[in-house]
Amino acid sequence: MKIAILYICTGKYNLFFKGFYESCEKFFLNGIADIEYFVFTDDMTLSDSVKVHLYQKECKGFPLDSLFRFDMFLSIEGELKAFDYLFFFNANMLFVAPVGEEFLPKNEGLAAVLHPGYVKKPSFLFPYDRNKQSTAYIPPFKRGYKYYMGSLNGGTYQEYMKLIQECSQNIHDDYAKGYIALFHDESHLNKYLFGHNCLGLSPAYAYPEGSNLPFSPKIIIRDKVKIDPYFNKGRDYSLKGKMKKTVSIIYRAICWYL
Questions:
Q1: Which of left, alpha, beta for 88 (phi over 0: left; psi -120 to 50: alpha)?
Q2: Which residue in 79, 159, 166, 186 is the catalytic one?
Q3: What are the E-state strand segments in 10-71?
Q4: Is-catalytic flag, 209?
Q5: Within a 13 Å sphere around the CA of 197, how many CA atoms are in the beta-carbon half?
Q6: pTM of the predicted model, to two decimals?
Q7: What is the tens place of the pLDDT at every residue in 13-64?
Q8: Low-confidence ranges of the chain (pLDDT < 50)
Q9: Is 102 helix (H, G, I), strand (E, B) or coil?
């Protein structure tokens, strides 16, 4: 079995690769699969391993590097054809326990991790894109709502490549009209998966560092701000900021039904 890992790190995000790579080699499908890494970075000295393929990618900043990530994957489609499964991992993810074949979608073809912040919440609070003019829009009054985190997703080569191609096209269609989905590539990912079979991976595979959740973590999401204040990006953790965020969530939830 051959698995390709897709990974993006530019600028300060480069510092996460060593830990991710070493933990992945230790815990991910150990003895089960042959794994290679396809890394988009502006540091071409990041690794000298024969398993790591580096692709020059200059940092465009937020949100463009996130929004157009599917384009990066399409740019190496030819190299990826040799693999049975493709998986994207966020830069600041770290394996902390063995991950075996239960991680692989068999019948579904696709896999994505259920967002730990929404797994126990009602669907009207999910941060779907509510803009009806966007290709990422998900309508209300349906069934089977799930909210997936954009930090980990993948599947068989055939099915994941279909996802990549459609999400990339939809993002460009929106961008040409002046739209950017609410949560960028994550919004488009959720729209695609809403209409396709998907193995919903436990939040244990995307466990926020320092959280107290009823899951035994297998992959953690490292707290970037603890590593470098640069990653805070102006987030407002004051009471006023939290109240503003809460009001925004409630407003979007109400608008979904209007």
A1: beta
A2: 186
A3: 34-41, 52-56
A4: no
A5: 7
A6: 0.93
A7: 999 999 999 999 999 999 999 999 999 999 999 999 999 999 999 887 777 7
A8: none
A9: helix
